[in-house]
Amino acid sequence: MLGAAETLPVSCLHEIRPQLPKEKIEGCHICTSVTPGEPQVLLGKDKAFTYDFVFDLDTWQERIYTTCMGKLIEGCFEGYNATVLAYGQTGAGKTYTMGTGFDMSISEEEQGIIPRAISHLFSGIEERKRAAQSQGVAAPEFKVSAQFLELYNEEILDLFDSTRDPDARHRKSNIKIHEDASGSIYTTGVTSRLISSQDELIQCLRQGALSRTTASTQMNVQSSRSHAIFTIHLCQTRVCARPDSLLDGSQPAAEYETLTAKFHFVDLAGSERLKRTGATGERAKEGISINCGLLALGNVISALGDQSKKVVHVPYRDSKLTRLLQDSLGGNSQTIMIACVSPSDRDFMETLNTLKYANRARNIKNKVVVNQDKTSQQISALRAEIARLQMELMEYKAGKRVIGEDGSEGYSDLFRENAMLQKENNTLRMRVKAMQEAIDAINSRVTYLMSQEANLMLAKAGDGNEAIGTLIQNYIREIEELRTKLLESESMNESLRRSLSRVSARPPFSVGSSPGSGLAALCSPAAPTDTEASDVLRRAKQDLERLKKKERRQQRKSGCEEEDGREDEDEDSGSEESLVDSDSDAEEKAVNFQADLADLTCEIEIKQKLIDELENSQRRLQTLKHQYEEKLILLQNKIRDTQLERDRVLQNLSTMECYTEEKANKIKADYEKRLKEMNRDLQKLQAAQKEHARLLKNQSRYERELRKLQAEVAEMKKAKVALMKQMREEQQRRRLAETKRNREIAQLKKEQRRQEVRAWLATSCQWLGAGVCPALALKKFPKKGTSQTFSKAARLKWQSLERRIFDIVMQRMTIVNLEADMERLIKKREELSLLQEALLSKRAKLQAESPKEQKGLQELNEEIEVLGANIDYINDSISDCQATIMQIEETKEELDSTDTSVVISSCSLAEARLLLDNFLKASIDKGLQVAQKDAQIRLLEGRLRQSDVASSSQNHALLDALREKAESHPELQALIHNVQQAIPNVSLWSFWLRPADIGFTPPSSPPTRPRNDRNVFSRLTSTQSQGSALDKGIINPVGGTKNARTAPLQCVSVAEGHTKPVLCLDATDELLFTGSKDRSCKMWNLVTGQEIASLKGHPNNVVSIKYCSHTGLVFTVSTSYIKVWDIRDSARCIRTLTSSGQVISGDACAGTSTRTVTSVQGEHQINQIALNPTGTTLYAAAGNSVRVWELSRLQPVGKLSGHIGPVMCLTVNQTASNHDLVVTGSKDHYVKVFEIMEGTVGNIGPTHNFEPPHYDGIECLAIQGDVLFSGSRDNGIKKWDLEQQELIQQIPNAHKDWVCALAFIPGRPMVLSACRGGVIKVWNVDNFSPVGEIKGHESPINAICTNSKHIFTASSDCRVKLWNYVPGLTPCLPRRVLAIKGRATSLP
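Structure tokens predicted for Kinesin family member 21B (1388 residues):
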């Protein structure tokens, strides 16, 4: 049990959930498949992704757990951390797989990963306790605790906290994330519950799961709105594994170790697209937070899985989710990532992104170590060190390891030679085995052939049968086996004979004739003498030279004999027997020579090693000789001195009178004692000398290390000096660059001041009436080029980056377009599938009720077949889109391999600045180009719609001419009346679309005289019943007001009938049309003052209404729909137009009973519509573009683009060349002009862009001739000259609130403006001076329109007022009129 790190990759598991019933009903196809027998999933037709494990639709939970998860729990018992990470789109089955849903109806087979892991954990604990008891050792102790966290809107919440208020999710959490010294992540402030049983842990999991935040979306009924992390902590104390015995045979005492492990179960919230989930408000914020966390997780995975190792920083701190999972991704954990996907082609893009996400995670490498306490780690390290030392000691004893003269350790020559011989022996064994197999095969073949030959001979003789053939074959096999053994014996005998002859022919060697003798001579006591050692060396060298000469002679002899053999073979090729004999002799001689050569080579190597060993021994003996000679001389001197001293003392004693034998013995004993002490000192000296020699060796090593460190320090000092020098140079360059930049700034400021002075002088010259200002001619300011030229290297780098960016943009744009097409096709398929289901049910019902109705059944079958063919075609189109997307993704991966970071990292500081400047310029240019292209597309679409409207107006003119003709021809009038009576629900389109049968030319414009009861609206009015008059609106006249004489306008009537604010209106001399928030439009007869009809069935507020007098059609706008009403016969909706350009027959909103707030996916809110003066083209402002419709065919023909914000208002006029001039105002504060030429289709860009813009969004526009007025939310009104394309005048605060409506008074140079405060103001068009104002309504005024007689105002007070202009008032003096000239930017 050690602390060494083991590198393991993150395992990826791919799980495909089954299709939902809803997906099957909607006709979704399966776009995923699994390769049988391989962990590979196919997306689409041929895009393959390989993972560690892949599970298809019909895989059970138990198989998933036993295949992948069981080993993680077993690893926890060994001290390894583990993590299971479930990722995928919303509704892909992550919560079901993890097992935190806790559905009461779920069976035991469908239990998720977490309940199974809990059961496995506690069963493992019991199993280990029983195993310890059976082995007679102490049972391990386990401690289990659990935590349950959720990450909701980047706030960590504790699901085990019973005191937490569930409604206080938005409050800041007190849970903190920390990192310990070893790099592990832990949290503070989290409830950790101690667990004693499996049921208790399951109950805690259920309690936390029920506290988790969930909500319903359009893609998932119960969608998790937070990331959940369920953590199990396991701590165990057990008897550690110990070695069998120590060297001395003693048994060690029992030792305990403590292991800890944590298991993270992470259930990530699903990635989601807001346009698909339909989330709004709080759900949308949750979805954004979820996607941000998953984006940060993806960045971490990309950084860790970067195989090029270019990414150094891993952004763990970008999100709390990645911070909590820091151990699981790239840290100390065994991690498995479960990628849950949907098989339906509706979720193709989400599935593709999930597969790519998981594919990147496979490149992550985790460093897994055992989690031990410090004591257990130290014991394990010491135990490993003891085992290593014991192994080394055994190797020293066995002679495997030796120590050289310089103290270095190494393996002995005997060990190396033994290893080499073992390797050679293994190789020869393999060769022998292979040759034996070949011999057996040859023998079998020979036996078979010989038996066949014998059988043929017997067959010819007529005595053969099967039994005899078998017997013969057995005999032949036995004979061949005996022959093989005989050959082997003879070969061995011959080899032994040749060896004996070579040994007997070899001259004997007195010394070193064998390795054993050489080594014996080396190790004998007589070896240290100089004469013997020199003699041994001399003889060994002579022997080596003789062997080498013999080897060369053998080689030459072998070559000659081989040549002779080849010549003999060529000469005797005619005789087969001689050829076989010569071959066998040559082979035998070659074998002999090879054996001799091998023996010589082996002996040469042995001799060479012997010589080397003798030389080393001689050097060692010389060293020992000098040392022992010095010590011998020293000891001899000491002994001689001691003997002399002893003799001197004894002589003195003999001369003394008191000499006795006892004294002599005593003195002798003293000297003997001194001699013993000296001998002991001598031994200590020898030991000290050995220690000193060892210290000298260590000192030399220390000196080498010291010199090495000193050299490294010197190198570091040199590097430090170089770095400091580089820093000083960089500071100097930065200071020079700062000075240069300040100088350039000062120069630019100076140039700006010069330009300002020049502009002021030019203005002064204009005031003075001079053509050219003389002051400007006095001094010409030099122009300083501000553009900096690229160096060649920088230019090449910029070109590379530009190509890369262009490729990325084109790929993404293509993928977005393909996704839009695929979503549109999927939506169409759903509609057709529902229609097909309805037809099938209708057919079944018809078959049950009237089975004999064959005609109806046949029609239904044909319709069903047509729908089936359409659905198949749509499915093929979806498959083609998916294949194209996969191909683009593969190309994208190839482009990603050439990363731009290499180019950027190789840039110098100056090059980086130049590239940054070029990036800014390129982004501005590209933005302008995009705007221009969009404007061109809108212009082309407008031209297409214009042509449609022109055709429709011609048809309407034909109808009007036909009706006028009928006034003088009673027969024709009766015919028209009979047609209307016979077919009341059919429009007269087919009748008046055939003018050739009537024989007249339609007028160029409709008649202007009122036709009263002779027009179609009077007839409609007359046919209506009077019984419902109380339920309809009415226009009531009003009396004069108190300030009627001073007010510029006088209210004459009020139209009441709407129940909610009136938002829009349109009027002719005879009819008034109003739209309201009550989701209805009303038609009023201005002659009778009565409501004619009410157009209902709108999904939401009616924000715009237009009547086309040329065609008799009414256009109403609600949300993203434009309803086309034919009011000539029954006021019914004949077409429904959408903002995306689709045309739906009939009323597409007929089934709408409740108010629809949001638009359909892919559609945009339509804010306003307008008709061109000829009534041939309809313009609809939807989103940031204007779609152009051709009314003759009711088809979209183009789109006006160029705004970056929603288009809020538009107006249409006609130029002198009969081109439509469309003026649009947007929330982006700009007013743009589009000139639509006849036949223009596609995307049309603006021709003029008026500047300066308003300070807020544009709310209303009014155009008359070459004069344009624009009103804004900034309370101001601006007057523009369309011919000169410039701003004439502006009034910043024309009203006290938003300017909501503008209109011209017909026949008078007056313009009206109304605001949210209910005030109406009258302005003089010529000088833009105020004429007067009146409080028109108490509520905001939403719209103004006029006819030849009245002015109409629609207000939020649910009423429409009719006004008359009061002429003769003196205009007021202008108060805040600014004569500021503007400009219009001309666009190509």
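The CA atoms of residues 401 and 977 lie 123 Å apart.
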